[in-house]
Design brief:
Rossmann fold; seven-stranded mixed beta sheet; alpha/beta; 16% strand; 231 residues; binds S-adenosylmethionine
């Protein structure tokens, strides 16, 4: 009985990756859903990341199994906690770095004293500075081999997102990047479509080697951008 229970536990932690040698991204969505319901929702809830976004975050980590995750901005640390829980549950040993702006830089969303409160008792590394510059500096000093996933959730203007995605693409060989607040709606909605347009414009220039997967049914929206050779 004891031996049987051990086997069931081990199976529950198997990576939900399907057809890893095929040309398209694929995970076992039932296993990912179980993980979200049982492990993530009690901790982080559905704000700011609704179910489809939690699914894309978890699936990305499982499929690419990065040695490092670089994310900004930290805010209260919910995205960092999602990555930490995913890496821990699937025993990936991912090193997670989360960056937010320094306390003296004014930003409408700066979290102040609550910065990183969801990851304070975890090994997630918290930094203050510009997300892109700080992450690339850490990446440059990391010991090889490094496979990185980036999570871009800082300032959501067109210019910021374009600079950040372009900076990653120019610095990393086969990048894997998740971007938040990327939902597109027509202008009568009054939504900020800057992140959506920044990704679209940049990928039009960069050619067909990049694939995207979007959560598309409503706000806030998340997009996975990856080089086909990252699979
Ligand atoms: C929408 S919140 C991020 C939510 C967070 N990912 C979470 O899960 O709780 C945006 C955060 O990005 C930070 N930010 C804005 N521009 C930044 C930059 N250039 N570098 C790092 N952080 C930035 C803000 O201070 C704010 O805390």
């Amino acid at each position: 009985m004891k031996r049987f229970r051990k086997k069931v536990e081990a199976l529950a932690h198997d990576l939900p990756v399907v057809n890893p040698g095929a040309s398209e991204f694929e995970v076992n969505r039932w296993l990912v859903a179980d993980f979200i319901v049982e492990r993530l929702l009690p901790i982080v809830g559905t704000h700011p990341f609704p179910l489809a976004e939690l699914e894309l975050m978890t699936s990305t980590v499982c499929r690419f199994q990065p040695t490092h995750i670089f994310e900004w901005g930290t805010h209260v640390g919910k995205s960092a906690r999602v990555f930490y829980e995913t890496s821990t549950f699937y025993d990936l040993g991912t090193e997670i770095h989360s960056v937010d702006l320094p306390d003296d830089v004014g930003h409408v969303e700066h979290p102040g004293d609550t910065r990183g409160e969801y990851v304070r008792q975890t090994p997630v590394h918290l930094h203050q500075g510009d997300g892109l510059d700080t992450s690339l500096a850490i990446l440059a000093s990391a010991e090889a081999p490094v496979t990185a996933v980036f999570f871009v959730d800082g300032d959501h203007s067109y210019d910021s997102v374009r600079r950040e995605l372009e900076g990653i693409i120019e610095s990393v060989e086969h990048p894997v990047v998740l971007l938040h607040d990327t939902f597109y709606q027509s202008s009568d909605s009054g939504y900020n479509t800057g992140p959506y347009r920044a990704i679209r414009d940049l990928l039009r220039q960069r050619g067909s080697a990049y694939k995207t997967i979007d959560t598309k049914t409503g706000l806030p929206g998340m997009t996975l951008v990856f080089h086909e050779k990252a699979l």
